[in-house]
Design goal:
The chain is α+β, with helices and mostly antiparallel strands. It has two domains: 252 residues, Naphthalene 1,2-dioxygenase Alpha Subunit, Chain A, domain 1 (Alpha-Beta Complex), CATH 3.90.380.10; 114 residues, Rieske [2Fe-2S] iron-sulphur domain (Rieske Iron-sulfur Protein, 3-layer Sandwich), CATH 2.102.10.10. Helices cover 24% and strands 25% of the residues. The strands form three sheets. Strands 11, 12, 13, 14, 15, 16, 17 and 18 form an eight-stranded antiparallel sheet that branches. A seven-stranded antiparallel sheet has the order 1-10-9-4-3-2-5, with no helix packed on it. A three-stranded antiparallel sheet has the order 6-7-8, with no helix packed on it.
């Protein structure tokens, strides 16, 4: 597929979001409803729930989901809410229900397709029509093996339309055949606003200064596309120069021995950004995803997973270990940067940001936020914030 190198127009607005948007509890509450409730969230890969009855859960804001594979092998998502009193019907992050889902509170039970199976002590309840009292379904789509859910319908396109422009790019990776290396998990808990985390991740301007390993791997030939229609693409083509660090040097040697992918995929890292909070990384040795889950105004969990190719060779396994090492160092560095930039709006000396041309991706991401919540265009927080985000 053709990539669009980051070329901002002349005289574009170089200001970032107003500082108040990173510290307003009222705005944060609206974001949960108007952004996270209405946009697709990547839960995991289908290989993470491989058997009938396998399940995982996903929580964001006040919403909680149960994603389970049925006896018919169909993957479905439901609100993790018992229809009786609203208890979680499963309490573990993931697990297996052999035949039935049983609420741990009062013992109401549901079939794996979400239909009501039975209630405990039915003589104390009115006559309930089972077809009316099943678990409430959540919109679900599977794209190349990745499971997405959306708690509430919106104008956002379906997943296949949203990510359709990447079909040619992802085809050689055979994403639907990936297998997990341990399931999706939370790997960082950060005392920062979720938008600060996205701001750091949405540009490569800082790679040369902040990420020595990435700069040695692909920093000289890295570029970002702007966000368009809810997605973006960033490309890191491997540098031809010899790196000084052993991890990058050995990784490039290992990757050079692989023949799983054609060029240029076999010598580059690709990142597909999905608004509002998810990134899928395509590497020659593995595929990853990570996302920022808002927990509080200044509390964000970073969640993700690594997936491997079936029947991977020793060289590919070694390369996957090394790419994970490079990624781990980068993540630690980014988390430190996130804390620093998130502190800035609290300072009396901080007024506004000025974005470089290499940060045009941040600007286009901010525009997506402004389109959904126009109040983010206001330089000062309105005295009253309506749920529409208009003010």
């Amino acid at each position: 597929m053709q990539t669009k190198i980051n070329t901002p127009p002349k005289n574009w607005d170089r200001r970032g979001l107003p500082t108040w948007t990173y510290k307003s509890q009222s705005l944060f509450d609206i974001e949960l409803k108007k952004i996270f409730r209405t946009h697709w969230q990547l839960v995991c890969h289908q290989s993470d729930i491989p058997d009938r009855g396998s399940y995982t859960t996903f929580d964001v804001g006040g919403d909680r989901a149960l994603i389970i594979r049925g006896h018919d092998d169909i993957i479905r998502a439901f609100h993790n809410l018992c229809r009786h009193r609203g208890s979680r019907v499963v309490s573990a992050p993931n697990g297996h229900c052999k035949h039935v889902i049983t609420c741990p509170f009062h013992g109401w039970s549901y079939n794996l397709d979400g239909s009501l199976r039975g209630v405990s002590k039915p003589k104390y309840l009115p006559d309930l029509k089972k077809q009316d009292w099943g678990l409430k379904a959540i919109e679900t789509e599977i794209w190349n093996g990745f499971i997405f859910i959306r708690f509430e319908k919106s104008q956002q396109p379906n997943v296949n339309d949203l990510l359709g422009r990447f079909s040619e790019l992802v085809a050689p990776y055979q994403l639907e055949k990936l297998t997990g290396t341990g399931g999706a998990f939370v790997f960082a808990d950060v005392a920062a606003n979720w938008k600060s985390m996205r701001d750091v991740d949405n540009e490569g301007y800082h790679v040369a200064t902040a990420h020595q390993s990435l700069h040695e791997l692909y920093g000289k030939d890295y570029y970002d596309e702007p966000y368009e229609n809810g997605t973006s693409l960033s490309v890191g083509k491997f540098n031809e120069s010899s790196p000084s660090g052993w991890s990058v040097s050995l990784y490039k040697k290992m990757v050079a021995q692989l023949n799983y992918l054609p060029e240029p995929q076999n010598s580059a890292w690709y990142y597909i950004g999905i608004f509002p909070n998810t990134v899928i990384g395509l590497y020659p040795d593995s595929v990853i995803f990570y996302q920022d889950i808002p927990v509080g105004l200044k509390q964000t969990k970073q969640r993700g997973a690594v997936y491997k190719h079936k029947n991977e060779s020793r060289q590919m396994r070694a390369a996957r270990y090394l790419s994970g090492r490079i990624d781990g160092l980068t993540a630690d560095e980014d988390l430190e940067l996130t804390k620093w930039v998130d502190e800035a709006p609290e300072s009396s000396g901080f007024e506004e940001t000025i974005l470089s041309d290499l940060e045009y991706g941040v600007y286009t991401y901010h525009n997506h936020l402004r389109q959904i919540l126009p109040v983010m265009r206001e330089e000062r927080e309105p005295r009253v914030l309506g749920e529409t985000g208009i003010g």
